[in-house]
Design a protein that fits this description.
With about 170 residues, the protein is an alpha+beta fold. It contains seven helices and seven strands; from the N terminus they run ααββαββαβββααα. Strands 1, 2, 3, 4, 5, 6 and 7 form a seven-stranded mixed sheet that branches. It is globular and about 40 Å long.
Length: about 170
């Protein structure tokens, strides 16, 4: 990692662009948390996904609170649902449907051991291949594909963390 990337520190609650709430819909935010030591990604099994007739595995995410930006909301949701502290690396996707706008980011795990929400039934750190098998929703698989591409570019030296965030902030 380049030296100048390690010293960048930004309070995303203050700097990120706020998104207007859609009429008749909601916004959620979350994303892919990567353990850079193992290359595995974090999946959560939650009650809501399970109650919808699915296997329950998804990315940690949730609704944004009033006045909250998408990156801060994603960090909060990851901490609440998975008990993991993470560092944002880049924006992956914004998916809009008739009912909602969903913001997805990629994060690096920096710690764990925080209390986990009751809505989370199970946590798993899995390879990208296993994540592909466990994720049932089309949008979750789209996010997985975007994460794979970005991680590949990062590993091949095609991009660095600073340039990723410059692209994200400009969006």
């Amino acid at each position: 990692m380049p030296k100048d990337c390690a010293t960048i520190e930004v309070d995303w609650r203050l700097r990120e662009r706020r998104h207007k709430v859609r009429r008749g819909g909601w916004q959620s935010s979350g994303g892919v948390v990567v353990d850079l030591d193992t290359g595995k990604v974090l999946l959560v099994k939650n009650r809501r996904e399970l109650s919808e007739g699915r296997n329950g595995w998804t990315w940690p995410k949730g609704k944004m609170d009033v006045g909250e930006g998408p990156v801060f909301a994603a960090l909060r949701e990851i901490a609440e649902e998975a008990g993991v502290m993470a560092e944002p690396l880049a924006r992956l996707a914004t998916i809009q449907t008739k009912r909602a706008t969903r913001h997805y980011y990629i994060f690096a795990k920096i710690g764990d051991g925080l209390p986990v929400s009751e809505e989370t039934l199970k946590l798993r750190w899995v390879s990208l291949r296993v994540a592909r098998r466990l994720l049932e929703r089309k949008r979750d698989r789209q996010v997985l594909r975007a994460a794979k591409q970005l991680l590949r570019a990062f590993e091949n030296g095609e991009t660095d963390r600073l340039s990723l965030w410059k692209q994200t902030i400009a969006c």
